[in-house]
Amino acid sequence: MSASQKVQQHPAFVQVQNKASYYVNTLDKELTKYPVLNNLEQRTQIPKAYAVIGGIFLLTFLHAFNALAAPVSNLVGWALPAYLSFKAIESPSPHDDVQWLTYWVVFGFFNFLESFALRVVLYYVPWYFAFKSVFIIWLQLPAFRGAQTAYYNVLKPVLANISSQTRVVAPTTSTSEPAAVHE
């Protein structure tokens, strides 16, 4: 019996292999809800769970090289939401429109703020773009309703405060006498 066969038959190895299979099967069942992934699986013959796991590892690898981290993070924030926004425009239901409009407002505001503080944030926060990508995914996924949560808890109060301040009209002085003309 070879060394690799002994390792493969070891109870700890078998237990890890069974756990991994369980988690991959559970992930596969969850991913079946997404038609895009089902189509990808049919076209490529790569199981959707493996494609998602591979994509996560690829993103992690690309984040390890800081020069690629920013473009990858922005791609994560743009690619799938843009596609799903186009689909939402064509669908008759307004629910997905609200999801993606809210996402784009929050994503745009976040990128606007980031443009002011990026150098400082990069200095103090290692792996910033990895955290940003996770945050963006949280915003995107309808199961978490991250975009709505961020909008209602952060953006809406800020925008309401700004809006109420712009509605205040400066007091005007009206006099019944005509203004004196200086010669």
Give a topology summary.
Blueprint: H1 3-9, H2 11-31, H3 35-44, H4 48-64, H5 66-90, H6 95-124, H7 128-140, H8 146-167
Helix pairs in contact: 4-5, 5-6, 5-7, 6-7, 6-8, 7-8
Structure characterization notes:
- There is one protein chain.
- With 183 residues, the protein is mainly α.
- It folds into two domains: 52 residues, no CATH class; 96 residues, no CATH class.
- Helices cover 79% and strands 0% of the residues.
- The chain contains eight helices and no strands.
- The protein is extended and about 95 Å long.
- The termini are far apart.
- The model has no long low-confidence stretch (mean pLDDT 84).
- Keywords: Membrane, Transmembrane, Transmembrane helix.
- It is found in: Membrane.
Concise overview:
InterPro entries: TB2_DP1_HVA22. With 183 residues, the protein is mostly helical.
Keywords:
single chain, mainly alpha, 2 domains, about 80% helix, extended, transmembrane
Number of domains: 2
The helical percent reads over 70%
What string gives the helices and strands in order? HHHHHHHH
Distance between the termini: 113 Å
Number of distinct helices: 8
Low-confidence stretches: none
Biggest pleated sheet? none
Question: Structural class from helices and strands?
Answer: mainly alpha
Mass-distribution shape: extended
> What is the number of E strands?
0
What is the C-alpha radius of gyration, as a whole number of Å?
A: 26 Å
Task: Indicate the mean pLDDT.
Answer: 84
Beta-strand portion reads under 5%
